[in-house]
Description:
The structure holds 2 protein chains of 2 kinds.
Chain A: H1 21-26, H2 30-53, H3 57-73, H4 87-111, H5 131-157, H6 161-171, H7 180-187, H8 191-215, H9 220-231
Helix pairs in contact in A: 2-3, 2-4, 2-5, 5-6, 5-8, 6-8, 7-8
Chain B: H1 5-16, E1 25-33, E2 37-44, E3 49-56, H2 61-68, E4 78-83, E5 89-94, E6 98-100, H3 101-105, H4 111-130, E7 143-146, E8 151-153, H5 176-192, H6 203-212, H7 224-235, H8 247-257, H9 259-279
Antiparallel strand pairs in B: 1-2, 2-3, 3-5, 4-5, 6-7, 7-8
Amino acid sequence: MDRDTAIGGPHGHFPSTQVSLLEAAASGVPNEALERVIALYWKPVYRFIRFKFGKDNEDAKDLTQSFFASALERDFFARFDPSKASFRTYLRMAVERFAANQHAAQNRQKRGGDIEFEPLEEQAAGTTESPEQVFEREWQRQLFALALDELRAHCEASGKQLQFAIFEAYDLAGAERPSYAGLAAQHGIAETSVTNHLAWARRMLRGFVTERLRGVTSGERELREEMRRLWT
Amino acid sequence: MDLSDSVLDHLRHTAALPDLTGTRYELEGEIGRGGMGVVYRARDRDLDRRVALKVLDAEMEGEARLIARLEHPAIVPIHETGRLPDGRAFYAMKLVAGVRLDHYLAQAPSLAERLRVIRRVGEALAYAHTTGAIHRDLKPQNVMVGEFGEVYVMDWGMDAVAGTPGFRAPETRLDRFSDIYALGALLAFVLTSPGPQALAGPSALRAIAAKAMQADPAARYPDTTALLADIERFQEGLAVGAWAEPWGHRLRRFGSRNAVLLWLLAAYAGVKFVLFFLRNL
């Protein structure tokens, strides 16, 4: 399979105070809400389409773009009913319907009317994750990636580069984590300062994640449920 | 920023841990996850004692205030409420050494012991209802039995709690009648748990549970005290209000409840018969 796209959706133009998705839709500014949704969901939707429908990189990108364009045109937000499902589930089911229809239409054109789905799980060989689990995992990854971007920007703007450097070295370490003592010696600070800086950065990260979630949920109850799923 | 699965998992774990900076507590480990948050074991540095620290998922300090005003031997006392630096509300409470009710029942306690636990739970509910508080999510996992037999009702609920299938009343809006329903479900559970080999429970107790679990709240017991009174009547060998007892059962119950009197009457009749027989020899 060809490599995933590096596109992750637009960055850097989100309102500083995120009102909830439904508030935004109800107040007649769906574009702003959609921007937030795209930033968080573009990559998960793209991966879900690739995984579930066996699309290559370009086709999956096109389908993802088409889905969001269609969502904007078709009162996507207005039809969302938070009493029936979380917004994340609603969006995934809409993607699935949309991509299945597009997929069927393409096959009709290619085969003169015959509809032939590729095996939905054909790419699942070698992994135990379902397309839905892939979607959820990508959603979590993107949520944290966006929150980390905000944390980094916040640290740079407020002169807390040291805090971010320690956080990056410890919590974002891909391989073996350094010891607190090693980090303290490296930066010439006390070991307790390392733990304090880490606690501060984690607290800020949690705050940014929460705000992101608040922006794409329909209210306190959905926010709480999403947070519980995220932290479990 | 591309995050590997392992870094993502690490971030999810570390960002979830409560930041206790500025509090008197040191985190020791997770105890469990309840309706609205996570419960941790922590050490209170000031008083050098262990406590249970419940960190709520969102801004819901109302739960802590609600529980803090409940003072009853079967409700875990709250030591302190507060807010973490990350904005989450928390409360510190007595650390209960014991087991959850569903695990306790696995030890096959006697019927009398099972009913003792139910009565303690009911008394806590009855008290809470007099203060206007309701539980909303009563179930075996929210009842603890301590090592000295003490019973605690945990996880007092908030508006957001939706209850648990099997214990949740069918009505949409939960109120004290929903708690009565859940208490009935809990009674049915303690009668039948841990499995098919356990007691099915006497008919009268099953009838009490069924009455408490009526779909129509108006058909349930009017309050928790009335339900407890019916259990007490069962334990004293009296007829319970929830059950139209068959005559045969009523006679057996009368017999077992008045066994001494019946034996005395039988003995008297026997003596009279022997005397009558001797007089006519």
